[in-house]
């Protein structure tokens, strides 16, 4: 599956007893994905943003247990998310009430979802300041990643992972206990965000000068202890890395040492060859 392309879901014919808005309504959005057939689409057919707001058709979205809803144009939601398309056009009770409740969603991520559908961009909402202890820096991005998965928005999910990688590299940040716990509790095993966290931990461990700052070492130990599966994933990835012939990690302690040994061996071999040549001995 090409993750670069957005996905569109089509309603597969519904059973007779579940038809129609305001008649016998479907009253649950759970299991909604299973009713839709997936096919890929190269590009979303989007309008310019001002056109979406020339409408009387707005939807109230309640996120988590927050009472105050987000009110957004229905077409804007449906054009971006197959989930909203299904919920609001598929004969569920939400089609009538124009209210959608995302009880499982973390309210931290929703403003980033709104930023994305308005601008098709995803920016980190937090300040990048090395001197501020900010353990939950990436939590809004992790939350929008989980939300994007819930709303079937692959591109948004990918952008969230990319932005987390950027945030981590900008501040030489490590995943925090809260972030690891949230991502491992709310995403599938081996998800892109889990992989991203494991990569960051492995690179920090391998990079020679990474732990010169002892506080960073403590943060690493805390993070790896946040979740048993995460601990195992990080250890497995380090083990795998040591088996690589070459690697691209800057200042990698494993491969730098190995290259050093190899280089010394080469110098010794060349020296031996020269000595043999000087003595008229054919080197074998
Ligand atoms: Zn950031
Ligand atoms: Zn390496």
Q: Can you tell me about this structure?
A:
The protein has 284 residues and is mainly alpha-helical. It has two domains: 7-103, no CATH class; 120-251, no CATH class. The protein is 49% helix and 8% strand. The chain has twelve helices and five strands. The chain has helices at 49-52, 74-80, 82-89, 93-97, 110-119, 139-150, 154-170, 177-186, 192-206, 214-224, 228-242, 253-278; strands at residues 7-11, 36-40, 58-63, 70-73, 99-102. A three-stranded mixed beta sheet has the order 4-3-5. Strand 3 (58-63) and strand 4 (70-73) form a beta hairpin. Helix 2 crosses helix 3 (82-89), helix 6 packs antiparallel against helix 7 and helix 7 (154-170) packs parallel to helix 9. The chain is elongated. The N and C termini lie far apart (53 Å).
Outline the secondary-structure elements.
Layout: E1 7-11, E2 36-40, H1 49-52, E3 58-63, E4 70-73, H2 74-80, H3 82-89, H4 93-97, E5 99-102, H5 110-119, H6 139-150, H7 154-170, H8 177-186, H9 192-206, H10 214-224, H11 228-242, H12 253-278
Parallel strand pairs: 3-5
Antiparallel strand pairs: 1-2, 3-4
Helix pairs in contact: 2-3, 6-7, 6-8, 7-9, 9-11
Bound molecules: zinc ion (2 copies).
Q: How many structural domains?
A: 2
The succession of helices and strands, N to C, reads EEHEEHHHEHHHHHHHH
Q: Which spans have pLDDT < 50 for at least 5 consecutive residues?
A: 1-28, 30-42, 279-284
Strand content: 5-15%
Assign the structural class, choosing from mainly alpha, mainly beta, alpha/beta, alpha+beta, or little secondary structure.
mainly alpha
Mean pLDDT across residues: 80
Shape: elongated
Terminal-residue CA separation: 53 Å
| Amount of helix | 40-55%
Q: What is the subunit organization of this protein?
A: single chain
- Main beta sheet: 3 strands, mixed
Ligand kinds: zinc ion
Helix segment tally: 12
Radius of gyration: 26 Å
**Spatial arrangement of strands, main beta sheet:** 4-3-5
Protein name: BTB domain-containing protein
InterPro entries: SKP1/BTB/POZ_sf
């Amino acid at each position: 599956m090409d993750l670069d392309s957005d996905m569109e879901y089509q309603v597969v014919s519904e059973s007779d007893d579940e038809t129609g808005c305001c008649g016998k309504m479907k009253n649950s959005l759970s299991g909604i994905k299973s009713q839709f057939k997936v096919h890929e689409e190269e590009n979303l057919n989007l309008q310019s943003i001002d056109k979406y707001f020339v409408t009387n058709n707005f939807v109230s979205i309640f996120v988590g247990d927050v009472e105050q809803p987000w009110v957004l144009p229905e077409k804007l939601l449906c054009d971006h998310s197959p989930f909203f398309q299904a919920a609001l056009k598929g004969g569920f009770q939400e089609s009538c009430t124009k209210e959608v409740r995302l009880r499982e969603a973390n309210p931290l991520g929703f403003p980033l979802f709104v930023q994305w559908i308005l601008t098709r961009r995803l920016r980190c909402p937090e300040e990048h300041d090395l001197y501020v202890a900010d353990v939950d820096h990436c939590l809004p991005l992790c939350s929008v990643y989980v939300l994007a998965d819930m709303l079937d928005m692959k591109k948004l999910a990918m952008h969230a992972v990319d932005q987390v990688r950027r945030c981590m590299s900008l501040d030489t940040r490590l995943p925090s206990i809260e972030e690891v716990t949230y991502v491992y509790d709310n995403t599938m095993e081996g998800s892109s965000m889990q992989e991203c966290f494991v990569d960051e931990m492995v690179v920090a461990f391998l990079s020679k000068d990474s732990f010169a700052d002892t506080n960073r070492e403590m943060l690493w130990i805390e993070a790896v202890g946040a979740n048993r599966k995460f601990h195992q994933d990080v250890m497995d990835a380090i083990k795998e890395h040591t088996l690589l012939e070459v690697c691209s990690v800057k200042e990698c302690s494993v491969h730098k040492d190995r290259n050093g040994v190899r280089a010394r061996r080469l110098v010794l071999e060349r020296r031996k060859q020269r000595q043999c040549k000087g003595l008229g001995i054919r080197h074998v």
